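=== Structure Prediction Worksheet ===
Name of assembly: unnamed complex
Input type: mixed (protein and possibly other molecules)
Chain count: two
Listed entries:
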Amino acid sequence: EVQLVESGGGSVQPGGSLRLSCAASGFALSDHYMEWVRQAPGKGLEWVAGSRNKANSYTTEYAASVKGRLTISRDDSKNSLYLQMNSLKTEDTAVYYCARDVAAGGGWYFDLWGRGTLVTVSS
Amino acid sequence: DIQLTQSPSFLSASVGDTVTITCRASQDISSFLVWYQQKPGKAPKLLIYAASTLQSGVPSRFSGSGSGTEFTLTISSLQPEDFASYYCQQLHSYPVTFGGGTKVEIK
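=== Predicted Assembly ===
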């Protein structure tokens, strides 16, 4: 079955760290751009970070709000995507989704999403 | 960064109604515009990509149009399962951005 499953969420104090994982199955992670998107409680969707595929040298992009604190990485041998979260702030509290980014039919789009994992930053 | 302004942020409608949601981009994004549906506690679901291409399996009552800076999502003959939040997204360039969302509720 083609799916993404996030894990690693939890509660952490401000300034703390957390590492999220996203396990992919049913497809090869190395073929795809992969993204992290978050949603604060009761708020809209916010893109966080992206990782291009092997053909594009695994280069990365970040939202300004997380640059320097969050790091996206992947281990294609484990077919897994990661988000290392350091120096966490209360405003990082959100459900974090990983998503597969696809180019087809003249456009790009996120066609496969995980169920999300909740990160709560609070003292 | 490309800003997406989505309107309205909230709309109340009845089963059978036709509703239209607008998404305006702060600069030309050609047709790199995507629409998602999200229900409470669930991940977003892809509806339309490339501004007007219906994702496989999505009912034909959903349609998208536009290019450049003005885009619309239309839901014809609203069904009970369509009451949800809808988001536009631009994938013209990084950073990827989303519109603020539109919540469609039952009148």
